[in-house]
Write a structure and sequence with these properties.
The chain is an alpha+beta fold. The chain has 6 helices and 4 strands. Helix 2 packs across helix 3. The longest helix is centred in the first third of the chain and has 12 residues. The protein is globular and about 45 Å long.
Length: 125
C-alpha cells in the first residue's frame, strides 16, 4: 500500500495523472504454516477504491529461509541454479516448475486478483 501511496504522491508532485496506480512486491511468509514466497499486488484508482490480491505461493525449504532473509530470494535462486539475474527472466519459479509457471504468471495472478473489486463492484468493502 505504501508503494501505491508514494506513487500517487509522485504523480501529484509531477503533475501526472492516471486512472489506476499499481504496485507489487514478493516476499517470504510463514502465516499459512510453512515458509513460502508470495506476490502481493495493490491497485488504487483515482477515486480511492483499493484492490489487493495475491498470487499462488510456492513453498521454500527450511534450509533456504535464513539465506533468503539475509540476502534476497533472487540471489539465493541464482546461486542455487548457477544463473545470473533470474528475476529478469522466468524467475526461480520458472526453473522450479520447468516453466509451467513463470515470474510473469505469478505477477499477472496477483494483479488480476487485485482487480476483482474493479471488475465486479459488488465485491468491495
Amino acid at each position: 500500500m505504501n508503494r501505491v501511496d508514494n506513487l500517487i504522491k509522485y504523480a501529484q508532485v509531477n503533475h501526472l495523472s492516471a486512472d489506476y496506480y499499481l504496485a507489487i512486491e514478493s516476499g517470504l511468509v510463514s502465516e499459512i504454516g510453512f515458509w513460502s514466497i508470495i506476490n502481493v499486488a495493490v491497485v488504487k484508482d483515482n477515486h480511492g477504491v483499493v484492490g489487493k490480491g495475491t498470487s499462488a505461493s510456492f513453498p521454500v525449504p527450511n534450509k533456504y529461509v535464513a539465506a533468503i532473509k539475509k540476502e534476497t530470494l533472487g540471489s539465493v535462486m541464482d546461486q542455487m541454479f548457477h544463473e545470473s539475474d533470474l528475476r529478469s527472466s522466468t524467475g526461480g519459479i520458472g526453473l522450479l516448475t520447468r516453466e509451467a509457471i513463470t515470474r510473469i504468471d505469478l505477477t499477472a495472478q496477483a494483479f488480476l486478483m487485485a482487480l476483482t473489486p474493479f471488475i465486479n463492484p459488488n465485491w468491495r468493502d
